[in-house]
Specification:
about 40% strand, alpha+beta, Pnp Oxidase, Chain A, 8 strands, globular, eight-stranded mixed β-sheet
Length: about 150
Amino acid sequence: MKHTGPWSRARIDAHLERTVIPVRLACATQAGHPHVLSLWYLWRDGAVWCASGADAQVIRWLRAEPRCGFEVARDDPPYHGVRGRGHASLDPARGPELLGELVDRYLGTRASGFARWLLSRADDEIAIRITPQRLLSWDFTERMSGP
């Protein structure tokens, strides 16, 4: 996997592991138009892992066209982050377990009403593994910290 930008591969990995915001995923609709959506994610084994319901549009789109792009970056300054492009694969068997891990990461508990509702639907979740082919980091911290 190729990576470019100011950050080392270790710094890219650290950013993707510890940043707890949704990944912005770009994929192609069945009509070929680009579409961007946000999903909870984990960075594991050099891949972005997400989950979505089996009947979700994103699953249909990625099944038809697995090439995709993604970005993990906060909306507040100083602006920095990681974006990439890669190939998505779908794994229904891993969906339920992955959903539990995502609930733990983003909600911190499985006891809330929202967590219980999400987990009640776990059997219908499909794991999405995005294997990056290219990663790009950017960091405007120094540029934005001027006088």
